[in-house]
């Protein structure tokens, strides 16, 4: 699993500029989500979902599972997305 810093670095390489990962404080989530296009007053469901994952209220399970890592790097994914523009 890649860290936020590793993903930012890979994206920066593809874009040819510095990209830094930055945590958004909980109290700023609504404003940030609105800047990304969610309507004012319509961010609550996303915020609750992320809180649920962060606080362990939501977990992903289903019995016996096996972790399988992909072979496509983050840099390859970002490059393909850039090429598809």
Briefly say what this structure is.
By secondary structure, this protein is an all-alpha fold.
Distinctive features:
85 residues, mainly alpha
Description of the structure:
This protein is an all-alpha fold. The protein has one domain. It is 47% helix and 0% strand. It contains 4 helices and no strands. Helix 1 runs parallel beside helix 4. The mean pLDDT is 93.
Q: SSE layout and pairings?
A:
Blueprint: H1 4-15, H2 29-35, H3 44-54, H4 74-83
Helix pairs in contact: 1-4
Number of strands: 0
- Mean pLDDT metric: 93
Q: Please tell me the total number of domains.
A: 1
N-to-C SSE string, H for helix and E for strand:
HHHH
What's the N-to-C terminus distance? 26 Å
Low-confidence stretches: none
Largest sheet: none
Give the C-alpha Rg.
16 Å
Structural class: mainly alpha
- Helix content estimate: 40-55%
The dominant shape is: extended
> In percent terms, what proportion of residues is strand?
under 5%
Task: Supply the number of helical segments.
Answer: 4
């Amino acid at each position: 699993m890649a860290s936020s810093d590793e993903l930012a670095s890979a994206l920066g390489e593809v874009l040819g500029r510095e990209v830094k990962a930055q945590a958004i404080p909980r109290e700023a989530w609504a404003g940030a989500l609105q800047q990304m296009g969610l309507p004012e007053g319509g961010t609550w469901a996303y915020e609750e979902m992320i809180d649920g994952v962060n606080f362990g209220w939501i977990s992903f399970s289903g019995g016996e599972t096996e972790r399988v890592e992909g072979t496509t790097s983050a840099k390859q994914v970002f490059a393909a997305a850039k090429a598809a523009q």
